[in-house]
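Appendix C reproduces, verbatim, an entry submitted by the partner laboratory led by Prof. M.T., so that reviewers can inspect both the input and the predicted structure.
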Amino acid sequence: MTVCWWSPSSQAAQPRATIYTADQCSAATSCFVIFYNSRNSHGEYRSPCFVTNKSEYSHAGRSIVQGTEVLTYRYQFGYDRQLERWPAICVGATPGSGLSVKNDAATAVNFDSRAHRVYYNTGYRGTSQDFPPSDNLKPALKNDNASSRRL
């Protein structure tokens, strides 16, 4: 997550770098997991991941205004999640760690009680693919994902 402050004065925003790799998901909730790498030949998802249980208008991140501050969240593949539900395991410092989620995903697995849809464009537009339980992204979306919607 990158945090920037804005005020009506002429002072420039002061950015503070942080990373946002997941929302309110925990071991007790069901989530949609987006992986940097495709499912391997053993049928496992072992890769840095991004975990969510809500619609994401843009896989690049989002900005929200809180009072006089503008908070900007940047979505990146992380490996700090303790997700180990076979066949999905978020793994450590491997290729993809720290990269933007937007246009870098290869697969997703759905542990949520509701379907999720991945779109080619930000704002839930363009080619899409629904995710009931697990599957690789189709070729038109692989490394060209820009948003996802919880259905």
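Residues 1-18 have pLDDT under 50 and may be disordered. Additional entries are available on request from the coordinating office.
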